[in-house]
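Lab notebook, bench 4. Still working through the backlog of constructs that have no structural model yet. Next entry is a single chain of 234 residues. Request: give me the structure tokens for it.
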Amino acid sequence: MLTYLKHAAGDLLHLFYPHICAGCGDHLPSTNQHLCVDCLLELPETNFQHIIGNPVEKIFYGRIKIQRAFSSYYFSKNSPLQHIIHAFKYQHNKEVGHQMGVLMGQHIKSSSIINNIDLIIPMPIHTDRENKRGYNQAAVLAEGISAVTGIPFRTDLVIRKKSTATQTHKGRGERWKNVQSVFQITDHQSIQHKHILLADDVITTGATVEACGEVILKAQPASMSIAALAWASD
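Model written out:
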């Protein structure tokens, strides 16, 4: 309860004093910071970028053909990471989202098994949701990854044709049904023969990523890998 109240107070303070840590709500000493040192140190790294057959990769076994998959962090409720994700998805804190993308990019650069990526495609959201939010959170992460790795990213190659109900409280079967026939390729040629990295914020059952990935694979890339900021195991 104390953590929740502290973060709620941080949300309110952010309206008037924007230099608040997105993870814990504490004041930051610098206008260039978005996370405090404590929250950065406490982020629960998975190190999956170094492990072939890691739990995120196994989600997609038998479902979709991928080269590699990983998440940078473990997701847990009421954690600093949940607050960070909430801040850049719902509180217009685009800067902290970019910082998390930079951290993902550093993980990719340190990996010996996730390499030779030609192009990053962020998971698309419907234009109605993007207009309301002001940006696509996956695109913000992709921009951060690109800034570190130098790998280009494109937001126009895959579109979300229709908005769908939230996936938060749905099971695997319901999630898959919810996202069937949602995605569309706009330019097959720009995807063909490339190693594509599909980037998203949080992976749970993987249904949405699978649906989008299937559409990308129809454009005949050389291969496809998946990167998520966080993995929610339950």
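Notes after review: The chain has two domains: 1-42, 44-231. Strands lie at 69-74, 119-122, 158-160, 183-185, 195-203, 223-231. Flag for follow-up if needed.
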